[in-house]
Design brief:
Blueprint (H helix, E strand, L loop, with lengths): L6 E6 L1 H4 L15 H12 L4 E4 L7 H14 L4 E5 L2 H4 L6 H17 L3 E6 L14 H18 L2 E4 L21 H15 L17 H4 L2 H18 L11 E6 L2
Parallel strand pairs: 1-2, 1-3, 3-4, 4-5
Antiparallel strand pairs: 2-6
Protein name: SGNH/GDSL hydrolase family protein
Organism: Glycomyces tritici
InterPro entries: GDSL_Rv0518-like (IPR053140), SGNH_hydro (IPR013830), SGNH_hydro_sf (IPR036514)
Length: about 250
C-alpha cells in the first residue's frame, strides 16, 4: 500500500512554480504540475496541506539558501526539490559542486522527517536551436540526481526518459518551459511515483495543435524569446527578481 502524506512543500524554480501553465480560473499566477499534483493527491489524502516556494529564474544555490530552511520549518512530510536547470544554461556550470550540495540538501530534508521527490530534467535539446551543445551538462545534472536519490533513498521522477516530452506540443512557445499539457504530464509522473491515481485526462491523446517549431522559425523565436533571456544575463537580472512565492505557507488544499 502506497504511503499517504499530510503536507507537501514544493521547492525550485520556474519548473515548479508552474511557468507556462496559465491558471484556468484566471488567477494572476501560473498553475503548474505541483498544483495539479497537490489537488489530485488531496482527493486521496484527505486534509493535505500544500505550499509552493518556487520562484522562476532561481539558480541552485539561491534556491537552497532561500527555500530549504523555510520548507523545513513548516515540518512537511513530503518535499519536492528541483533545481539546477538554470545553472546548466550558464557559463561556469559545475556539476560536481551541484551534486555535492544536492547530497547535503537531501540529507537535511530527510533528517527533518520528510520524504523527498527529485527529478531528472526533461530533454529540451530537440526543441531549442543550438542547445544540443549543452546536452552533456543536462546528462551530468541528471546523473547527479540519480546518485543522490539512490544514496538517500529518495523518490526519483525520471522525466529525461519519459518519451512523451519529445512531443513539442508539451512545450510552451519559448520551448524552454512546459505548457499546460507538459505540466499535466509531470503531474502524472509524480502521481505514478507516489502511488496516487493520476487524473485520467492527463493521459488522454493530445489534440491536434499547431506545433511550436512550426509557429515561428528559428530567427523569429530567437528575437522573441532568446534575445530577452540573453539581455537579462548580461544585465545581471532575473525573471524572478520581483516575484514572491505564490503559496509560501502550508494551507489545506481546497
Amino acid at each position: 500500500m502506497a504511503a499517504e502524506y499530510s503536507s507537501f512543500v514544493a521547492i525550485g524554480d520556474s519548473f515548479t512554480e508552474g511557468v507556462g501553465d496559465p491558471d484556468p480560473n484566471g488567477g494572476d499566477r501560473d498553475r503548474g504540475w505541483a498544483d495539479l499534483f497537490a489537488h489530485r493527491a488531496a482527493e486521496q489524502w484527505p486534509g493535505l496541506a500544500y505550499a509552493n516556494l518556487a520562484i522562476r529564474g532561481r539558480l541552485f544555490d539561491r534556491i537552497v539558501d532561500e527555500q530549504v530552511v523555510p520548507a523545513i520549518k513548516q515540518s512537511p512530510d513530503l518535499v519536492s526539490f528541483a533545481a539546477g536547470g538554470n545553472d546548466a544554461l550558464r557559463p561556469g556550470f559545475n556539476p560536481v559542486q551541484l551534486s555535492t550540495r544536492a547530497h547535503e540538501v537531501v540529507r537535511l530534508l530527510k533528517a527533518s522527517g520528510a520524504e523527498v521527490v527529485l527529478f531528472t530534467c526533461a530533454d529540451i535539446t530537440p526543441h531549442i536551436p543550438g542547445i544540443a551543445v549543452l546536452r552533456k551538462r543536462f546528462v551530468a545534472t541528471n546523473d547527479a540526481y540519480k546518485r543522490v536519490a539512490k544514496r538517500h533513498n529518495a523518490v526519483l521522477v525520471d522525466l529525461w526518459n519519459d518519451k512523451a516530452f519529445e512531443d513539442p506540443r508539451l512545450w510552451a512557445a519559448d520551448r524552454l518551459h512546459l505548457n499546460t499539457y507538459g505540466h499535466q504530464r509531470v503531474a502524472y509522473d509524480v502521481c505514478e511515483a507516489l502511488g496516487v491515481d493520476p487524473d485520467p485526462s492527463w493521459s488522454e491523446p493530445l489534440p491536434h495543435l499547431p506545433r511550436p517549431r512550426r509557429e515561428m522559425n528559428g530567427v523569429q523565436w530567437a528575437g522573441k524569446h532568446f534575445a530577452p533571456w540573453v539581455k537579462r544575463r548580461l544585465t545581471g537580472k532575473s525573471s524572478g527578481d520581483a516575484v514572491d512565492p505564490k503559496r509560501p505557507e502550508l494551507t489545506k488544499v481546497k
